[in-house]
Amino acid sequence: MENLKHIARLSAAALFLSMAPLHAEEPDISWIPEEIEMPEDMEIVTDRRIGSAIRVFTFTTAEDTDELADRWREALTTGPYQVKPAAEGMDQRLIEFTGQRIQNGQIAFMRGAEGTDTTVTFDASLVD
Fold this sequence. Notes:
alpha+beta; 2 helices
């Protein structure tokens, strides 16, 4: 009988722990250019480090895709970064850049369906 009580207590503890909210670490986005002001409403989707030099950071936001892309392109261009002009006929919402610690950087914007958030992905190779 004592064994059943012990198992019941362990099961209850496991249930409560599984229901507790997880406290994720704050993402380390110090590699993203400081000229870029992140949206206040961003919800993180992906925060990955691949080796010592590759970073991928994805989030969603309700901010307007075109406005965000234009603002960030301008901020990077006036900062210490070299921004590749968007190819004619291509989407203006793709920003490719280099400079500072970033050997190759890219910001891609994917507008969601009507009434859904924009997904923004930062992808960069850092200089070690």
